[in-house]
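Demo today. Your pick:
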Amino acid sequence: MYYETTKELLAFIKKSPTAFHAVEEMQTRLMEDGFQVLSEREHWNLIPGGKYVVTRNNSALIAFAIPEDPPFAFHIMTSHSDSPAFKIKENPEMKVDGSYVKLNVEKYGGMLMAPWFDRPLSIAGRVIVRKDGKLEEKLINFDRDLVMIPNLAIHMNREAN
């Protein structure tokens, strides 16, 4: 029992490198289980026995079901799905001395910086692209080693220890 649950959790985590991917995966699974997608921009016609899901900014998700019979009760479960990360800025490429390219990034969330240094990192997240004159959201997940954030040599950062 626990082995299967663990396998399912690990499969979910692999498909969810960012909050955007996690929301997409959860919404897909809920829809397969009969949940109806709602929009915050429309009036909802909710019915007893209905199962519903709504997302905001494709980074937050709320799912709920309305009981058919009394006693009426709400069962609410929540979670926080984003996490500290380095976010790549718009137009991020910075060429250095014609030798290599740096990506301009900003840190997001309360984070410990050291675990990010001197290790291969990948790139995943949401990008906004222009298609046929309209902005369109795309999820990306390269799922391979692409970049590294080098640490300063110890003699350049005496405060490291």
Q: What stands out?
A: The mean pLDDT is 90. DSSP finds two helices and seven strands in the chain.
